[in-house]
Structure formats: C-alpha cells, structure tokens
Amino acid sequence: MRAQRGSERRPSTCSSTASIVLAVRSHAFDKLARQNSGMPREWDAKSYDALPLPHTTWGTGVLDRLAAHRLPEAARVLDAGCGTGRDAAAARERWPAMRIVLLDGSEHMLAQARTKLGETAEYVHADLMQPLTIDPVDAVMSVAAFHWVPDHAVLFANLARVMRPGSPLVTDCGGTGNVAGVNQALARITGDTIAPWQFADAEQTATRLVAAGFDVYDVRLKPDPFRCEDPDILEQYLATVVLGSHLDRLPAGEHDSFVTEVRCALPAPEIDYVRLEIDAVRR
C-alpha cells in the first residue's frame, strides 16, 4: 500500500543529529520501560483514524474469514482490541443484526469507536491480560491488537473463558519479523533492543491456542510491507501508529526529532509488516 503525498514536505535528506545524548536516552528508555511494562497505553485516536492505514485491508481480511463461519444473524461478537471501531463499523454494515461488543484498553479509542456505532454496540474498557467480565460471545475478531498483549497464553485463556463452544476466533496481528526494520532503527538510536510488542510465530501460536482450548484451523505468517515515499506522512504514521509507546518515555519537546531520527535510520521508506493470521474454534 502506498500512502498519498501531503501538501507540505520536509526535506527528505537525513543528517546526523546530536541533540539527544544516547546514554541519557537509553537510560530513560530502560527506566520507563520497567515502569510501564504490561499496562495498556492511551492513543491519539482521532489522528490514528485519519491516517491512510493498511489496517483497513487487514480488517477486511478478518471479516472475510469471519464470514466463512456463517454465524447466526444476531450473533454476539467481541472485537478484542477494537481501536477506533473501524472494523466493528464495517462488520455492522455487513451484518446489521450483529450484536457487537467493543473492547479496548484505551478510553480514547473507545470514545472514537462510539462516534461510529453510537449506542448500538456495547463498550468495554478492559485489559486483555486480565480475566474478562463480559457475557459469553459467539465469536471473537481482532485486528492489529494482539501484539500489544505481552503474554499470548494468558490472552488466549482469557478469551476462551468468554467464548461459547464452537465459536470462532478470527484475528490479525503482528507476527515474527514484524517491523524488524523499525526495531533495528530504534536499536541504533537508543541502544535499546527490547521492543514493546509480542511478535509470535505460527508454531508458538498454535501450541498456545491448543493449550487454551481451541481447535486450530490455520495460523500463518504473511509479509505485507507498507511503503510511504512522503517523509511527512511516514513520520506522522510512525508517531501515531508505531512509536507511541516509545514517545511516551520521552519529553514532548523531543518527539519530533526522535521520529525523524527513526525515519532516517530505516533501511527503506516503509514499515516492514509481517501479519500473524489466526483461524481457530473454541472446543
């Protein structure tokens, strides 16, 4: 997917910057990583919703795969890590009678989702690492969320407890190799090799699903790079979608320069996504 060009551009050339001392920044990242680990973070939901996201295509794929399960017309479906509600709204267009439960750890995301579905859906502010206190569901869908959950064994067990037997789990998230170029750039800039994401492989995921009580239909990795030649849009994308947890650890005055450093350190003007797609059914 290629992003559209913006009306204003900063120079595309990159120069070395020395405004932030590596050792000081690395110490700050290490300290705040320990403080913030495992906690859901807040998002700039409106900016997220306005970007040309490849997530739209990923969401369409999840809904196509969900359709293959031929759910009842008024099925109760959990969107786990619903974000701004873009995928839930698309599901509502396909299946008007679907009863949708939108769950996210970000109140900002839930507020943005409410602008799309209003009072026709149920909204739950919750952490997927904790047991879920919702009524049973007929299916779980999720797009670009599970890699933010640090323990997938716990995640799948929590989902399984609220899923009726025979209910499908149809999801997309980052998998092994996802944003490897971004991680390499971050390591060069900060000296920090610990990423905030959980990028599992297909074999690990299948094993965890079976242990949690699922029959696995398919788990696969699929490369899907997002290329963006416009440096302004790429930096906005990095800041809003990819680097938020890193920016949370820095003073606001350093955000712009940090994002520019990451863009300049990328091996190419792209985000090298690798998707982990799950199709499983609760036993």
How much is the average pLDDT? Answer: 87
How many β-strand stretches?
A: 9
Strand order of the largest sheet: 3-2-1-4-5-9-6
Terminal Cα span: 37 Å
Structural category? alpha/beta
Overall body shape = globular
Layout: helices, strands, pairs:
Elements: H1 22-36, H2 45-50, H3 55-67, E1 76-80, H4 86-94, E2 99-104, H5 107-117, E3 122-125, E4 139-143, H6 152-161, E5 168-174, H7 180-190, H8 202-212, E6 214-223, E7 226-227, H9 231-242, H10 244-247, H11 255-265, E8 270-271, E9 274-282
Parallel strand pairs: 1-2, 1-4, 2-3, 4-5
Antiparallel strand pairs: 5-9, 6-9, 7-8
Helix pairs in contact: 3-4, 6-8, 7-11, 9-11
Report on this model:
- By secondary structure, the chain is α/β, with parallel strands linked by helices.
- It contains eleven helices and nine strands.
- The protein has helices at residues 22-36, 45-50, 55-67, 86-94, 107-117, 152-161, 180-190, 202-212, 231-242, 244-247, 255-265, and strands at residues 76-80, 99-104, 122-125, 139-143, 168-174, 214-223, 226-227, 270-271, 274-282.
- The strands form two sheets. Strands 3-2-1-4-5-9-6 form a seven-stranded mixed beta sheet, with helices on both faces. The chain has a two-stranded antiparallel sheet with strand order 7-8.
- Strand 1, helix 4 and strand 2 form a beta-alpha-beta unit.
- The radius of gyration is 19 Å and the shape is globular.
- The two termini are 37 Å apart.
- 38% of the residues are buried.
- Mean pLDDT is 87; it is low at 1-11, 17-24 and 26-38.
